[in-house]
Design goal:
This is Autotransporter outer membrane beta-barrel domain-containing protein. The protein contains two helices and 57 strands. The protein is mostly beta strands. Strands 1-4-7-10-13-16-19-22-27-32-37-42-47-52-57 form a 15-stranded parallel β-sheet, with no helix packed on it. A 14-stranded parallel β-sheet has the order 2-5-8-11-14-17-20-25-30-35-40-45-50-55, with no helix packed on it. It has a 14-stranded parallel β-sheet with strand order 3-6-9-12-15-18-21-26-31-36-41-46-51-56, with no helix packed on it.
């Protein structure tokens, strides 16, 4: 299936498309409130008209314009609300909803060619339906308009010659919500607009080719609109924000030929993205809004995809839940709770054709369902981040007097099911270029808000708890046809990597309390609790295909379920000072107590099942034939606690200073999750042939590992006092207890095929279940001192003075360590061949 390159000369360009048909709905009238008489309500935006077109002969070559075809419909902006009469809130007008984007349909044949480097992302063929922007308002904002449906049937040629110039881009994006405030009762119904359905059908005669950097062949996306943020300085506005809109369904069927030649230029990028939840400003202490859910993404490829640039995967299919909104800070009360992340949808990708990539980081297929994560940029020409951000929104800070608390972090959303089927051919040539990467990743919990309290007498501060991590969904990779094949040439380029990962638990917020008083000063600070992490989902790989990797650190088949790491506890600092400003016939008292936040438990590793009926060959060192792992998440780290007290008294009065610090340990009550998460069950059944040639390369490695127990926080306490009458000091510190390690799960390996390793330090069949190590306990450290001292040569004179008596009590206790987790049952059955050819190598290994 050789492809003749298109002769398109790239040059700077940004001009009117050759064939353009766009429609925009009418803008709604703004509302007006009156002192006397009825208000004039804001009017919704008008819908965009639907557009259908058929261009059987295309447009031909369109020089120096970049975009050749633009067809789009946008809903009208909703009218803005108005508030001009604040007397008893009798007059108010809400913002109105944005209009719906119209449906778009195009049947395209012939040849459509564009060229020219673009200053920002564009496409030779651009189709879109966009919901209108919701109207802003102090009383209530207007909902974002929904997007319509976008359809394309391509039977011809589309060519793009320029950077940031894609071949085809089709989008159905919901409208964002205007800025302002919303009443609690209606906030849920006034979120971002829903993304529409996108359906692309690329016929067998069709061909899409791009040559520039950041120029994917085909982009199909549906995005929910951004939820409404509460604007700054809105004293009279309603206090709530609105959620993000839902991403719609995206379906791509391609039987044609797709070629890209630049860096950051995927063959197919299909994604559904939930809108982000509305954020609160740095005042008010109200909650952030939840993120929108993402929809189903389905790609079926039976043609050919060839990419040559770095970070240019053949197919990227993603469903990304929207991140939760940040809770508001507060200067006089508790911070607002962060919004929960939206759930990610299912991702289904099938390949019965041919996919070939040549660059670094260019996978054959990437299928991801991620809650609150980062959507792939359609026009990015740089290495994508290896980390996922987003998830639940962070809690707001609490700043003020007497009693203050931080907002709780939002919960991470759950990830959807990921299914990949390959009955065709996949070949990658670069390092870090997987044949198939299938991932389902739960959203991380939001961080709890910090709390800071400063008061003249008594001060309390409570850090916000972290949000819980979301669970990873199921991941299934099937390759049933014996004629199917996956070959990778580069290092760290597995043929198949299937993963389900639980989201990490959110960290607890820090707490600081300080008090200053002439007689009695008391401060208490409690760090926010770290949250429990999400669990890994079930991972199943069933392969009859030929799998070959040629580079180092490149396993042929990896299946992993990993629990998320528990959240760290927030630190706590309590400071109490009692100093008389004048003579007071009362004792001086200073008490401080600090408790570090407890750490969250690690998530459970899920079940892992691998069935192999095909031939597997790895050539590089540390490149297993099959690696199946279930790993429990580690517990977090408890928050440190620091307590300090100082008292000085009037003459003739005693000074009493007491401090207590307790480091954070395992959270929860009996029966709750604590410490490291357990590993799940792992099953491997091999009837095929496996050969590994590199050193340190397992034939089959099956392992279940419990997560390590969390580490206890340290307790640090100091008491000081100055009095010429009597000093009474007490200082105690206790380190937090470490968490127990998670247990290893059951591991079963059965092989009736042939397994051979030729490198040194290589094991043919390995089955292992290992419990996690217990966590360290925290340090307990105390100090107490009386602030009167003298030179030793003056002792005989000082001894005759009526100096204060002093009573000092200190106690420090380190936290206990957590117990180690037990290993699980291990079964290893070899009914075929297990042979090793290298030195220091083992045929069979079973360990618990």
């Amino acid at each position: 299936m050789a492809c003749t390159p298109l002769l398109l000369l790239a040059q700077a360009a940004w001009a009117q498309p050759a064939w353009q048909k766009t429609r925009t709905g009418t803008k709604g009238n703004d509302g007006v409130s009156h002192w006397i008489g009825a208000n004039d309500p804001a009017q919704p935006g008008g819908p965009g008209d639907g557009i259908g077109a058929a261009l059987p002969d295309g447009t031909g070559l369109i020089p120096s314009t970049g975009m050749a075809i633009e067809i789009g419909s946008t809903g009208g902006k909703g009218g803005s609300g108005d508030v001009t009469n604040f007397v008893m809130d009798l007059a108010h007008v809400s913002g109105a909803a944005g209009g719906r984007g119209g449906d778009i349909a195009l049947r395209l044949g012939g040849s459509t060619l564009g060229q020219g480097d673009q200053p920002s992302g564009s496409a030779v063929v651009r189709l879109y339906s966009t919901g209108g922007l919701g109207g802003g308002g102090l009383w209530n904002v207007g909902k974002g308009g929904d997007a319509g449906e976008v359809r394309l049937n391509l039977q011809g040629l589309v060519g793009a010659g320029g950077s940031a110039l894609a071949g085809i881009m089709a989008s159905a994006n919901g409208g964002a919500v205007g800025t302002g405030g919303t009443e609690q009762d209606v906030a849920e119904s006034r979120g971002g607009g829903a993304g529409g359905t996108v359906i692309l059908d690329i016929g067998a005669p069709a061909r899409i080719q791009t040559s520039g950097a950041s120029a994917p062949a085909l982009v199909a996306e549906s995005r929910g609109g951004q939820g409404g943020n509460r604007g700054p300085g809105t004293f009279y506005s309603q206090p709530f924000t609105t959620p993000g809109g839902q991403g719609g369904t995206v379906t791509v069927t391609s039987a044609g030929t797709l070629n890209t030649g630049g860096e950051g230029a995927a063959g197919i990028l299909a994604q559904s993205v939930g809108g982000g939840g509305g954020n609160q400003p740095d005042a008010g202490g109200r909650p952030g809004a939840r993120g929108g859910d993402a929809g189903l993404v389905s790609v079926n490829q039976s043609g050919q995809i060839v990419t040559t640039g770095a970070y240019s995967s053949g197919i990227i299919g993603q469903s990304i839940g929207g991140g939760g909104g940040k809770g508001g800070d507060s200067s006089f009360m508790g911070g607002g709770k962060g919004g929960a992340a939206g759930a990610a949808g299912a991702v289904e990708i099938g390949n019965t054709g041919r996919i070939a990539t040549g660059g670094q980081g260019s996978a054959g297929i990437v299928a991801q369902s991620i809650s609150g994560g980062n959507a792939a940029g359609a026009f990015q020409a740089f290495r994508p981040s290896g980390t996922f951000t987003g998830g639940g929104g962070d809690g707001g800070r609490g700043l003020g007097f007497f009693f203050v608390s931080g907002g709780e972090g939002g919960k991470g959303g759950s990830a959807g099911a990921v299914t990949v089927g390959n009955e065709g051919e996949i070949r990658t040539g670069g390092d870090d270029a997987y044949g198939i990467l299938a991932q389902s990743v739960g959203g991380g919990g939001g961080r709890g808000g910090e709390a800071r309290s400063l008061s003249p007498l008594i001060s309390y501060a409570l850090g916000g708890g972290g949000g819980g991590g979301g669970d990873g969904g199921s991941v299934t990779v099937n390759s049933h046809a014996p004629s199917a094949s996956i070959v990778t040439d580069g290092e760290a380029a597995a043929a198949i990597l299937a993963q389900s990962i639980g989201g990490g638990g959110g960290a607890g917020g820090n707490a600081m309390a300080a008090s200053l008083s002439p007689v009695l000063s008391k401060s208490v600070a409690i760090g926010g609790a770290g949250a429990v992490a999400g669990d890994g989902g079930k991972v199943t790989v069933d392969s009859a295909a030929g799998l070959t990797t040629l580079g180092a650190n490149a396993a042929a088949l990896q299946a992993q379920s990993i629990g998320g790491g528990g959240g760290n506890g927030g630190s706590a600092g309590a400071y109490a000072i009692s100093v008389p400003m004048a003579y007071v016939d009362l004792p001086s008292l200073a008490f401080s107590r600090a408790i570090g936040g407890s750490f969250g438990a690690g998530g459970h590793g899920g079940e892992v099942e691998v069935i192999n009926r095909g031939g597997i060959l790895t050539e590089g060192m540390k490149s297993a034939g099959i690696q199946a792992l279930s790993i429990g998440g580690g517990g977090g780290t408890g928050g440190d606690a620091t307590a300090y007290s100082f008292a000085t008294s009037s003459p003739g009065m005693p000074a009493i200073s007491s401090s207590e610090a307790i480091g954070g340990g395992a959270g929860g009550t009996p029966g709750d999750r604590t410490g490291g998460g357990p590993g799940g069950g792992v099953t491997v059944n091999n009837t095929g042939g496996i050969v590994t040639r590199g050193a340190g390369s397992f034939g089959v490695q099956a392992m279940s590992v419990g997560g390590g127990g969390g580490v206890g926080g340290g307790g640090y306490s100091t008491s000081d006092a100055i009095s010429v009458t009597r000093n009474i000091l007490a200082s105690s510190a206790v380190g937090g207890a470490g968490g127990g390690g998670g247990t290893g799960g059951k591991v079963s390996v059965t092989s009736s095929g042939s397994v051979e390793t030729f490198g040194q330090f290589s094991t043919a069949l390995s089955a292992m279940s290992v419990g996690g190590g217990g966590g360290h306990g925290g340090t307990g450290d105390t100090a107490a001192s009386v602030g009167v001292s003298w030179d030793p040569t003056l002792s005989k004179w000082v001894g005759k003075l009526p100096l204060a008596d002093s009573i000092t009590v200190t106690a420090g206790l380190g936290g206990s360590g957590g117990g180690g987790g037990a290993g699980g049952e291990v079964a290893l059955k070899n009914l075929g061949t297990a042979a090793t050819g290298g030195t220091n190598s083992v045929a069979l290994s079973a360990i618990s």
